[in-house]
Amino acid sequence: MLVRLDFSTTLSLLLLLLLVGSSRAQVGVNWGTQVSHPLHAPSVVKMLQKNSFTRVKMFDTDASVLHALAGSNIEVMVGIPNTMLETLSSSMHAARNWVESNVTWYLKYPKRRVDIRYVAVGEEPLHDVRLDAVVGAVKNIRAALDKQTRTRDIKTTIPFSAGIVTSNSFTPSTGNFIRPDEMKTILELLSDSKSPFTVNIHPFISSVKDPSFPLDFAFFDGDFPFQQDQGNNYTNAFDAIFDTVVSALKQAGFPDMPIIVGGTGWPTDCNLQANPQNAERFNQGLVKRIESSRGTPLRPGQLHAYIFSLVDEDRKKPGYERHWGIFQYDGTRKYGLTLLGARELENVPDVEYMPARWCVSNDATDGLEQRINATCQQVDCSPLFEGGSCNFLTVSERASYAFNSNYQLNDQATSSCDPEFGRVVRDDPSHGNCRFMRQIVVNSAERERLCRNVLAFVWLTLSMLFI
Ligand SMILES: *[C@@H]1O[C@H](CO)[C@@H](O)[C@H](O)[C@H]1NC(C)=O
Ligand SMILES: *[C@@H]1O[C@H](CO)[C@@H](O)[C@H](O)[C@H]1NC(C)=O
Ligand SMILES: *[C@@H]1O[C@H](CO)[C@@H](O)[C@H](O)[C@H]1NC(C)=O
């Protein structure tokens, strides 16, 4: 019986492999960590697996995230922050250390291996790093990866903004790099190691920056009258931008370089077009596009793309930048995205909340506005402004929103709900879509581990000083 069971399991696995093959459609997601209260990483990984996200892109090498991804079979792109590129470019030693502690370390134990496939060198680095430093960093990281058999197959890539390409009157077939000479150096480098070109595509930002941008063109299912270009019909910005990149690569002499969409998505707050309906429409269109395996007119086939992003990040720039998550800060989904295999998005499990307490205005009016302003210097009040989910609140409710955000940011510390203006209540004061947050408990095991890591690091540094 046991043997038969095993045999049939093997058979179905084999069948599955045959069916799915190597060209299986895969949905990726960006896992950013600029948050004051991180979700318990192992719970996030459980959620990723349940929802069949098979690819994760990081902007750093956060140890708790990488430890949680160990043994999960999720493909990982780790990231090097822009601020490190100068150092990595000028020092081979620094590059080797970076690879050793941020990549090789996670490949050591076969059962707890992190499936690192790519190293992203910077994130849209040309905005604030010199070209030579970007090139130098890629060269040194590449050399460090090539030194070991274990890391040789890991690709290096650079996530660029789509702003580095341009075209004549928006026809994708005329796409070219804005600085073709600079790009040539980088493309040769990528091509030498058979690495992919990575680009971020954000129709939302195009629509924010250009008031004449037709909103419907931002969506995959838009009704926008198509734009014809050499027999291809473009009905959405994603295809048009992607194919502009395809043409630019062709023009530069790299027509076959694989393209990864490093980040694409839609925020849900703090802008008139940023809301859950539009975000669902965009991301659902993206998932369907990935599932269809049809690619774009100039690059038919599988699309390798990462949704931007996983959760809202409260340490980013105030405004819509903080609200790109498909999940809220607490791991609850914002809308019912249907994923590959027609399943609905599931929440992050086992999230623990702080007690049901909120800080609201006690209806004192003297100096209230000043106090709101002062509080909003400390916490993000952008949902209160035009296009925000809490824009409709009265002055007193706005005060409550600000005071509560501050109270939750400070883990409900009594001192963070000033009795002169506020009081603590036990009923959720949220108004419809305007949600008054209740903080999550940062997993204590996680905290301990982080502390241990810091201690170990201090110890290591000290011991190096004294050797
Ligand atoms: C590993 O990467 C992180 C950034 O993600 C960096 O802070 C750290 O210094 C790196 N380790 C080494 C040895 O370079
Ligand atoms: C684009 O649209 C035109 C006009 O409807 C149609 O004739 C043509 O076949 C379309 N091209 C493609 C590639 O779908
Ligand atoms: C508070 O801020 C708003 C908007 O920035 C401003 O219009 C108002 O004058 C400020 N009020 C006080 C009392 O500082």
TrEMBL record:
Gene Ontology, cellular component aspect: plasma membrane
GO BP annotation list: carbohydrate metabolic process
Keywords: Disulfide bond, Glycosidase, Hydrolase, Signal
Annotated InterPro entries: GH, Glyco_hydro_17, Glyco_hydro_17_plant, X8
Signal peptide: 1-25
Annotated ranges, domain X8: 357-436
PANTHER family with a match to the protein in the record: GLUCAN ENDO-1,3-BETA-GLUCOSIDASE BG1-RELATED-RELATED
The name this protein goes by in its record: X8 domain-containing protein
Provenance organism: Selaginella moellendorffii
Lineage: Eukaryota, Viridiplantae, Streptophyta, Embryophyta, Tracheophyta
